[in-house]
Amino acid sequence: MELIFTGCLLVVMVIIFLLAMIMKGSNLTSAEEHIRSIINSARDNDEEVEDKYTEAYEIVMEFGDLLAAEKNLEQYYGVKDIYDRVEEFRAENHQPVEQEKVALKTVR
Questions:
Q1: Which residues of the chain have pLDDT under 50?
Q2: pLDDT digits (tens, 9 = 90+) for 76-90
Q3: Within 13 A of 11's CA, how many CA atoms are on the CB side?
Q4: Mutual orientation of helices 30-67 and 2-24 as an angle, nearest 10°?
Q5: Per residue in 56-93, is it b (16+ CB within 10 Å) or e — as a string?
Q6: What is the DSSP annotation of the chain?
Q7: Using CA atoms, how far apart are residues 38 and 44, in angstroms rounded to an integer?
Q8: For FRET with 59, which of 1, 21, 76, 99 sits at 20 to 30 Å CA-CA?
Q9: Distances (CA, A) of 71 to 18, 64, 79, 98
Q10: What is the pLDDT of residue 6?
Q11: Residue 4 vs residues 9, 11, 53, 62: alpha-carbon distances, Å
Q12: Alpha carbon 26 to chain centroid distance?
């Protein structure tokens, strides 16, 4: 059992070593280039998600600071600015804006 565990551990270490060589290497074959592009695209996607999260976090924190403001006029214009930033953020990230149907009532 110990021999199987040691063998598996050795295989995993070899795979990690090979991946590191592919990421740092030059004069790579087409298969190695393909593996490198897959790894880099996964890394780029993670960074993109982190950037979106950071931008959304900044918008929410700014909104919280704005609500803590004492002047109503400052809050009013600040909320309008935040709304514009949120709309821009949604457009950049292809998020649909849900709008409810307006129901008007007749008052007599």
A1: none
A2: 888 888 888 888 888
A3: 6
A4: 80
A5: eeeeeeebeebeeeeeeeeeeebeeebeebbeeeeeee
A6: -HHHHHHHHHHHHHHHHHHHHHHH-SS--HHHHHHHHHHHHHHHHHHHHHHHHHHHHHHHHHHHHHHT-S-HHHHHHHHHHHHHHHHHHHHHTTPPPP-PPP------
A7: 10
A8: 99
A9: 61, 14, 12, 30
A10: 93
A11: 9, 11, 42, 55
A12: 30
Domain spans of the chain, in order of start: 2-92
The answer to whether 19 and 46 have CB atoms below 8 angstroms apart is no
How many angstroms separate the CA atoms of 59 and 89, rounded?
Answer: 10
pLDDT in tens, 4-18: 989 999 999 998 888
Quote the pLDDT of residue 97: 61
For residue 51, the one-letter residue type is D
